[in-house]
Give the backbone structure.
Amino acid sequence: MRGTRHRTRSLLTACAVVAGLLVPGALYAAGHVGAADAGAPPAPDPEPSGAECRTAVHGSRVVAYCHNPYPSTDRVQLHTDCARWWDIDADSKPVAVGPGRTVRLDDRCWKEVGSAWVTHSNETRPAS
């Protein structure tokens, strides 16, 4: 019985010593201790932005609905790649999606649609 207590006490002491040696190193590596600019506030996270778009292909037609839940305006543009080599690919005009707004973008091919996607830009340009 006495040997088991001695081993348990030795094991607990060894664990405490190892933890005491590792904690300062971990805090230093995490930048909590000894950092030169410890008083500086953390960098702000960028404001979330960008409309969420859902694209659907029905035969030779493409429809995309884009909703912008954020306070900044997003410019969206629908790109359609037609499956046939002789069918002309198309890009819609960029459309500004204001905060809390939903826009509908549509396009078509003569035959099948190969692929369709929406691009985003946070730049706002005056209407011309």
User: Anything to note?
Assistant: The two ends are 91 Å apart (CA to CA). Residues 46 and 58 are 37 Å apart (CA to CA). The mean pLDDT is 80.
